[in-house]
TrEMBL record:
InterPro entries: HATPase_C_sf, HATPase_dom, His_kinase_dom, HisK_dim/P_dom, Sig_transdc_His_kin-like_C. SUPFAM superfamilies: ATPase domain of HSP90 chaperone/DNA topoisomerase II/histidine kinase (SSF55874). GO terms for molecular function: ATP binding; phosphorelay sensor kinase activity. This is histidine kinase. Its EC number is 2.7.13.3. The keyword Kinase applies. Keywords: ATP-binding, Kinase, Membrane, Nucleotide-binding, Phosphoprotein, Transferase, Transmembrane, Transmembrane helix, Two-component regulatory system. It holds the Pfam family HATPase_c. It catalyses: ATP + protein L-histidine = ADP + protein N-phospho-L-histidine. It is an enzyme of class 2 (transferase).
Length: 405
């Protein structure tokens, strides 16, 4: 299992664990909410019975104090409505909006709309309980959940939201720190590789010159190919030395840059693979040629490895005049990529080869996005039929809109 698959499994495991914790928290809170609902219902029923006793023993002064004490200790918001729907009395409402005595100047007001809103809320939450009123008519007692119960009902979701926000912030912070650390490792390894390659390349150049002079092999084709490979090593060293620093980009004809590299590359791969370059031969873009060659090399190597026997690799160059962009499509006739892996192929460590490191496409994405301000993605792929990678670069030519006069 490659590191990317391991990381993805750990993410799924942590996500599942977080869901279990969240579900348990919600269920546990829901248990207390229902318990509190039952207690408030019992408290309301006690209030109803006390109110009924008040009606029956209205003139009994011995029980009035006890009944008032019980009713006063009921903290539920309650409204008693007459048979015609008029509000007779209330309890537990907002005292700043229920001032019937307009003569008092204590900062309270009388808000009739507030009573209507509260009564509608009570009707939505619980059915009314009928009682026989003082005038012998049927009265109705409404109540709604206490503020404490309402807050408790929403508390687990607020808690999960806060925890989720904290985890997201922590994840972004740790990911940024890890990415910065990875960048330092990339840069350190790249520059150390360039430093280590410098000495043997210089030695090889000296040995080639010695062979040419000793054996009079100035025009020997084998020596020429050795020189080409040494130059290639110099290019690779230059690539590694540019990692971590802002490379210089210059105006180049995209077709020419790609053609020159393909001519070098196809001599060093299977002759059963046909290379074709199509599209606009004049389009230009800002490129760092050594790094851009590295991008094309990685794409062509992956394409060649995906072709088991015979096949073809086509590079199509398209100019998007509207957006002033250059599209470069690299299409092969290999085994293809599953749609679920379109993003995964650019992850460090992801590979389908037993001996691969899974760094080629990850590095390719870095070069295109960080150094060329472009994009690269899997445009299309079908298993056993082939894959198309698309590179998007900014054109170095600015087109002025033509005016009709």
């Amino acid at each position: 299992m490659n590191p990317y698959e391991k990381k993805r499994r750990w993410k799924f495991f942590l996500l599942f664990f977080a869901i279990v914790i969240g579900t348990a928290s919600v269920l546990y809170s829901d248990f207390f909410v229902k318990k509190m609902e039952r207690e408030e219902r019992m408290q309301f029923q006690l209030y109803v019975k006390v109110t009924e006793k008040t009606m029956a023993m209205y003139d009994d002064e011995n029980t009035t104090d006890l009944i008032d004490l019980i009713r006063t200790n009921t903290k539920l918001p309650i409204i008693i409505v007459g048979s015609e729907g008029n509000i007779l009395t209330y309890q537990g409402l907002d005292s700043t909006k229920t001032n019937y005595d307009l003569q008092k100047k204590d900062g309270r007001i009388y808000d009739p709309a507030y009573f209507v809103r509260e009564l509608n809320t009570m009707k939505e939450q619980h059915p009314p309980t009928p009682i026989i009123g003082l005038d012998g008519s049927r009265w109705y007692i409404y109540y709604k959940d206490s503020p404490t119960l309402t807050q408790l009902r929403y508390f687990p979701y607020i808690q999960l939201g806060v925890i989720g926000l904290f985890l997201l912030t922590a994840y972004v912070a740790f990911s940024s720190a890890r990415k910065a650390e990875q960048d330092q490792v990339w840069v350190g390894m790249a520059k150390e590789t360039a430093h280590q390659l410098g000495t043997p390349i210089s030695s090889l150049m000296a040995w080639v010159e010695l062979m040419k002079s000793r054996f009079n092999a100035e025009d020997d084709p084998l020596i020429a190919e050795m020189e080409n490979d040494i130059k290639r090593l110099e290019v690779i060293t230059d690539r590694f030395s540019k990692i971590g620093s802002k490379p210089m980009v210059e105006d180049h004809v995209v077709y020419t840059v790609i053609y020159n590299f393909v001519e070098y590359f196809k001599l060093r791969t299977s002759d059963k693979i046909i290379f074709t370059i199509t599209g606009d031969e004049q389009v230009r873009a800002l490129l760092n040629v050594p790094l851009f060659d590295w991008v094309i090399e990685n794409l062509l190597k992956n394409a060649a490895n995906a072709i088991e026997n015979e096949g073809s690799i086509t590079i199509n160059i398209i100019e998007n005049l509207t957006k002033e962009e250059v599209f470069i499509d690299v299409t092969d006739t290999g085994r293809g990529i599953a749609r679920s892996k379109f993003d995964a192929v650019f992850q460090p460590g992801y590979t389908t080869r037993k001996r691969g490191w899974g760094l080629g496409l990850s590095l390719t994405k870095r070069i295109i996005e960080n150094y060329h301000n472009g994009q690269i993605f899997v445009k299309d792929s079908e298993l056993e039929k082939g894959t198309t990678f698309r590179i998007i670069l900014k054109s170095s030519i600015t087109y002025e809109p033509t005016s009709n006069t």
